[in-house]
Amino acid sequence: MQHVLLVGAGGFVGSVFRYLVSTGVQRWLGESWIPYGTLAVNIAGCFLIGLLAGLADSRQLLTEETRLVLMIGLLGGFTTYSTFAYDTLSLLRNGGIAAAVAYVVLHIVVGIAAVWIGHLITA
Predict the structure, then answer these.
(1) In 3D, which of 73, 55, 65, 34 has the Cα closest to residue 118?
(2) I need a labelling partner for 42 at 20 to 30 A (CA). Which of 2, 53, 72, 105 fits?
C-alpha cells in the first residue's frame, strides 16, 4: 500500500505541474496550429525520465521508493500522452492532417532524442 501512496502522491504533483506548464506555454505562445503546451510537457517529461533513468542506471542514486515517486508518479502524472492522443484526434477531426502528422512526428522523434540526451548527460 505504501508504494501505491508514493505513486499517487507523485502523480498528484506531476498532474498539477502538467497543468501549469502546459497552460503557461500555450498562453506564452498564443493560439497556434498545434498544441505546443502538450508538446512542451511531453518533451520535458521525456528528457527528465531519461535523466533520472541514467542516474538510476549508472550511479544507483535512486532507491526503489524514489523511483516510484519520481519516475512513475511525478513524471507519469506530468507527461500527457493521453492528452497527446486526444489532441491528435482533434486535429484530424478538424481536417488538419498535416498538423496531426507533424504533431505525432515531433512528439516521437524529439521525445526519443530528449530521453537519449538526458541519459547521455548522466553517463
Answers:
(1) 55
(2) 2
96 vs 26: CA distance, rounded Å = 19
Backbone angles phi, psi at 40, to 5 degrees: -60, -45
pLDDT of residue 81: 83
The span from the CA of 96 to the CA of 89, in Å, is 10
HSE toward the beta carbon, residue 118, CA cutoff 13 A: 21
Cβ partners under 8 Å of residue 75, min gap 6? 10, 14, 45, 48, 49, 52
At residue 103 the predicted structure's pLDDT band, cuts being 50, 70 and 90, is very high
**Entry pTM:** 0.77
Q: Cell numbers of 81, please? A: 500522452
